[in-house]
Automatic annotation (TrEMBL):
Gene3D superfamilies: HAD superfamily/HAD-like. GO terms for molecular function: hydrolase activity. Its EC number is 3.1.3.-. It comes from Amycolatopsis heterodermiae. Keywords: Hydrolase. The keyword Hydrolase applies. InterPro entries: HAD-like_sf (IPR036412), HAD-SF_hydro_IA (IPR006439), HAD_sf (IPR023214). The keyword Cytoplasm does not apply. It is an enzyme of class 3 (hydrolase). This is HAD family hydrolase.
Amino acid sequence: MTIRAVLFDYSGTLFRLEQDESWLTELTDHDGTPLDIEAQAELMRRMTAPVGQVVELDAEHVHAWNHRDRDPQLHRKVYLEVLKKSGVPRPEQAVALYDRLIDPSQWTPYPDTEAALKAASERGLKVGVLSNIAFDIRPAFTARGWDAYVDEFVLSFEVGAIKPELEIFRRAVQALGVPATETLMVGDSEEADGGARALGCEFALVDPLPTADRPDALLTALRTHGVG
């Protein structure tokens, strides 16, 4: 089947929230000891994990975690708890880190993000960004002029559904006006993004490596499915 539309995930696929030493140098644990490099890396992993509960939570926060990408208030509530339980006891430090998490300007694009979006768009394919997210990521694209390559943004907190629920994939393909069977979903999570297969989409998995270590996975995924 010819691919006529491509849906891209955001976090770990097109962009990645990467460790900036300036964010973490002043972080201290309960004893006032600076967090070591390993602890800092684990903190970043917990802030961006696409699926799976990353710390032990009580029932109230489990509910918030499970619905965090539907509701910005629940997202903030549970991530501040995650940060507290991950060695960031001071509320002002946790808030500062959280504010960076939800700031699209702090996210780093993969080296081939622009090329992949442009290649799909210039071939006449419909292009969508489909993300489990609780904040507006459009500024990350408009700041670079890449919104010109994207036909639709389908964001979980705006539509009230999350991957791998069929509803969010259905909303995305309907927005693009292309049948699911002619749509390719590109993402970094077999569990979440791979759910597109249940609707009939093709699926390409990319590894959410640091941006410096993944130069062309998006372009490779497109070529593998006859795009680009």
